Sequence to fold (513 residues):
Amino acid sequence: MKRRLAPALLLAALIGAWQLAAETGALASVLGLEDFLVPSPAEIAEALWQNRELLAENAWVTLREIVLGFAIAAVVGVGFAIALHLSETLRYATYPLIVASQTIPIIVIAPIVVVWFGFGIVPKLAIVALICFFPITVAALDGLRAADPEAIKLMRTLEGSRGQIFRRVEAPGALPSTFSGAKIAIAIAPIGAVFGEWVGASSGLGHQILQDSAQLEVARQFAAVAVLSAMAMILFGLIALAERRVVSWR
Amino acid sequence: MRQDTKMLSARRLNHFYGELPTISSLDLDLGAGDVLGVVGPSGCGKSTLLELICGLREPTGGSLEVGGSASAAGRMDRCAYMPQRDLLLPWLSALDNASLALRNRGLSKREARRRAAELFGRFGLDGFERSRPAELSGGMRQRVAFLRTLVSEKPLLALDEPFASLDAITRAEMQSWLARALDADPRTVVLVTHDVEEALFLSDRVVVLSTRPARVVDELTSPAPRAPDRDAAVTDARFVAARERAMHALRGAGSGEPAGALR
Fold:
């Protein structure tokens, strides 16, 4: 009860304080801004309701980019982790490159990807997948490599082949760690989607946030941010739920 | 001893772990149906010896045969290994853990489970077939691990400190339990332990190893192997005398030449 009540109360208190500060104009005067640039939570909620169709349309675009991009990263990342785990040569050869690739900021890569793939959904998927690939691959690989060498030895005496050792010992043992990587990936996936849209898009929440900013539609901008954040939290929750079902022995 | 009943034979067995000598000129013999206890100070190379027997390691020198086979693969085929920790896979049920060897051999899940389930009752594990290892007590986990070793139906059981992780009371219970299990279903066993009493109670014969590199410093015949009443057996005068002799050999082994001097 305390675990649920405490964050709810804190959130309510923060929103309440914000409402008060924005409504009285205190927040705007502290920031030295015009009143209409500092919307109160009530105004944001109103913008959310009034623009619900526009927001839903754009949210659907961004959701698709996030989910599909994440799915590509999950399949490729886990596949890559397995290949790196099974081949020491491949691991030595590519692991430093994978790490190095992460040192290039995604903001720098995004425009190049758009130049290559145009303005459709493909560059967004590529950027989301690029951003999700790293945590999934590293976590899955770490999980596979963390298998207890004693358990592997035992499996050998129980006539386990390399494939059986992988299937029965290494792969299940890597699941908790892989899920951790997936949770990190889904939490940062919206960053990729938004960058992808900022570099070139005609729809999506990131695109809308940029437009609202230019048109000083600050309340609607906040509403779009709230939708984006809610979406990411729901996706995170879904992966945590899947983890609880799959990793049932924990 | 006739050749065809000899299950294990080591002659001048040597093993180095890198530069470190772990086993030095060790001789061992074990007939079919015998239970051999191997005791020695901690870190003397007992576990290495078992891994050699089971084909998980190759000797550096000397000869080592299990059931007439000298190759690592041949030894592995003939040995059922029970490691110090139970190493049950947390994502599998007790029954699926016990039937791992059968599954690896290619049996269907149903057939493997059916065969392993037959032993569950005999091991006092009835009703726990579907439990995950985390739901079992330490003694039960150890019994499932032993069952997993038995189910593979290999001629030699190699047990590495099977009860070392248990509390004293559970350990005594498990020793009595293993004694009964071995009398009901005789097997050839190499039992590695640091517990002299456990070795003497469970084995027909006990060899005492020196500190690293391990060699045999004494060999005893157990006065009452697997006696029905454990408490009476371990306080019997002959048992106490045998234990004293083994302890003396162990102490001598521990305080003798420094490890590494025997190279």
Q: What stands out?
A: Chain A touches chain B through 20 residues (CB under 8 Å).
